[in-house]
Specification:
Number of strands: 7
Strand content: 15-25%
Order of helices and strands: HHHEHHEEHEEHHEE
Strand order of the largest sheet: 2-4-5-7-6
Shape: elongated
Helix content: 55-70%
Radius of gyration: 30 Å
Mean pLDDT: 84
Number of helices: 8
Distance between the termini: 85 Å
Length: 293
């Protein structure tokens, strides 16, 4: 009788230990599932639980495949829209150019001239939207394709600012430029860097109520670029949202798509930089910091 009790006790004890072990394995499986990880091993002698683990692994693998496929489709879609936007820019530029030539004709009467001026304004606005759309999808599409190279940022900035001064009367009158005498080298992609600077300069020219300060210098392992201009009042709450996609001030909704600064920030981050904004004493400042080589 004692032997029976002992054997029964041993089986009960083994059963309890197995249940505790089973619960521990189930907790491990739950942790793997919560972290969307594959179940690497199941240390139980239960075919049903092992089959469950195999089924979960198959499901995780299938989800990973679908996620990869969706990311690829999303990237291809962004490239397609970026290319389409780029293709739309050329005919729009031509249309605007011809409208300007027509307005210069001496035999164009006043009603027709006013119509052409109205069409030109709408075409300019449409081109700005197309440019912003291209910038948005281009910045998203190249996210994992940035080819970083050594760049003499002093040369790039000098050349770009010369173009602005030569081609824009407003830029030649408003830009106050201070650049370093020596060359500053950074690791970046020139196309991205140029797009960032053009976006910020265009933004300053569009919204500034006075002179625009463009300063660049090297200090403490970083190249610093600062673009400042007088601006209408911007609250702290608005500054926090200024890099959000589609964010615009209420009074500027007809002028801005709310894409420019969002895309600019993405591009700065893609070349390992940092961008900050500040508003103090009526001056709006954008500060960029890029690592030196």
């Amino acid at each position: 009788m004692l032997v029976v009790f002992l054997i029964t006790g041993v089986f009960i004890l083994l059963g309890i230990l197995y249940i505790f072990h089973l619960k521990r394995e189930i907790r491990r499986i739950i942790e793997w599932i919560e972290h969307n990880e594959h179940i690497y091993s199941v240390n139980v002698f239960d075919k049903d639980i092992e089959n469950l683990a195999l089924s979960i692994n198959k499901r995780i693998k299938e989800d990973e495949r679908k996620e990869h496929q969706l990311k690829k489709q999303d990237k291809n879609f962004k490239k397609m829209v970026a290319n389409l936007s780029h293709d739309l820019r050329t005919p729009l530029t031509v249309i605007i150019g011809y409208l300007q030539l027509i307005r210069l004709e001496k035999n164009v009467n006043e009603p027709v001239n006013s119509y052409i001026e109205h069409i030109e304004k709408k075409a300019d606005y449409l081109k700005k939207l197309v440019d912003d759309l291209y910038l948005l999808f281009w910045s998203e599409a190249i996210e994992s394709e940035v080819d970083m190279k050594s760049i003499n940022i002093t040369e790039v900035v000098t050349s770009l600012l010369k173009e602005y001064i030569q081609n824009s009367k407003r830029a030649s009158e408003q830009l106050d430029i201070r650049l370093p005498h020596g060359n500053i080298w950074i690791l970046a992609q020139e196309k991205i860097l140029t797009r960032i600077l053009c976006n910020l300069i265009d933004n300053a020219l569009k919204y500034s109520t006075g002179d625009i300060m463009f300063y660049m210098w090297g200090e403490s392992e970083y190249c610093h670029i600062q673009i400042s201009n007088p601006s209408d009042y911007i609250s702290d709450e608005e500054l926090k949202s200024i890099f959000d996609l589609f964010y615009t001030k209420d009074e500027a909704r007809t002028k801005s798509s709310g894409i420019g600064l969002y895309a600019t920030r993405k591009l700065v981050i893609q070349i390992s930089g940092d961008i900050q904004v500040n508003y103090e004493a009526g001056i709006f400042t954008v500060s960029i910091k890029l690592p030196l080589i």
